[in-house]
Amino acid sequence: MLDLAILGLLHESPMHGYELRKQLSTKLGAIRAAISYGSLYPTLRRLQTAGWITEAGETPADDADVPPLTSRRGRVVYKITAEGKERFQDLLAQVGPEAYEDAAFGVHFAFFSRIDVDIRLRILEGRRRKVEERREGFREVLQRAAERLDAYTLELQRHGLDAADREVRWLEELIANERSGRTPPPRGAEGELRPPSPRATDSTPPLTARPGPDDSAE
Amino acid sequence: MLDLAILGLLHESPMHGYELRKQLSTKLGAIRAAISYGSLYPTLRRLQTAGWITEAGETPADDADVPPLTSRRGRVVYKITAEGKERFQDLLAQVGPEAYEDAAFGVHFAFFSRIDVDIRLRILEGRRRKVEERREGFREVLQRAAERLDAYTLELQRHGLDAADREVRWLEELIANERSGRTPPPRGAEGELRPPSPRATDSTPPLTARPGPDDSAE
DNA sequence: GTAACGATGTATCGGGCCGATACATCGGGG
DNA sequence: CCCCGATGTATCGGCCCGATACATCGTTAC
Fold this sequence. Notes:
The structure is a homodimer. Chain A is mainly α. Helices cover 53% and strands 4% of the residues of chain A. The first copy, chain A, contains 7 helices and 3 strands. In chain A, strands 1-3-2 form a 3-stranded antiparallel sheet. In chain A, α1 crosses α4 (82-93) and α6 (117-144) runs antiparallel to α7 (151-180). Chain A starts with a helix and ends in a 38-residue tail after the last helix. Chain A binds a DNA duplex through α2 and α3.
């Protein structure tokens, strides 16, 4: 999961750890908080011994006047290998149930432009199915067990229901767009910062438009 | 984090592991997927050795004719101790930065009815602040780095921005409600899914455009 | 009758990932 | 001059997950 993300970034350009972490944070910011060094460095070593990446020793200029006072630990630049690129494609095209989990889906999505439309559709539909199940779970709890639950717990369920419902609709849009042939998502470079989302609550009878965040993460 | 959730559930009634897991899944379903046994049982043992919970052996059958072929492993019912209840209150009232993280916030929220209004407000405001920061992060990326990013990555950012914005508004409502004195969240339990109640969604005045990220009403 | 299956139930193991921490360099501001 | 924040690499303890194993019970299917 981290493997995929790291290989994906190094596929674009060589980088050292610190930079890698920063880019991961922005690229996957909507998915996971900020990957820890306690994960990053061990993963880098793992990828390295597996042969997917190598150190591209960024020799600090030719000025060998580096004061040998301390070991002068220079920054280590990693680059992806040919095998690594293959591995990346393999991981990316993996459409097993793991790819529909919150985090894994996000990582796959972040590199969508590197896979075929049909695989994209497979993943989007699998994810949609999963979120739909989640949504139905919330609905059942709200219908069947409403009176047995705490008021705050209920509010949490509504929150979750609304978030799931929104994600399903988001996925529907993306799926429709993929099918239409336009490769990149819609909503070009217009003014973002759009006011309250104009996507009004359509039908969905008992939904009661509630605010609902909590995309994934955790 | 699991500690808090488990203590909270056992505070309501004694339970065995399997049941605990089920209840956790529904109660925290909007927060985390479904806690694993690989977390649950070790945690139970930890809580037990710490003295927060005890085994309430549920041995219903005194008939010692239990075939010693296998150890006849009966189900183990756990109950909370007095110290456990204290510990629960301590954990619940913890308003440090950890309590604003996704998962931790959700667990706290799920047991909101057990803490004072002022602590509830402190947690809600802390959470709001955190999500606002998150939201601003997305906005900056979308404004400043839009052209340097992949179309799918951008869509992910918009998704995240929208979700964060929604959560902020959700929190605003909850905060306003807490301040108004009505203890439980709005949206009374029964009017929800049963009848096709045409109750229009309250209109949430004009807090959309410029959400001041700094209105610490402390 | 019994075999298969799914729900209930307890438990462990390897591994991924996080938070805290340590160490080291460098530029700038008080 | 010293502290601070950004840049940078790295480890350690610990939480938590997914996979797996084992055992019982009721129902359904052959």
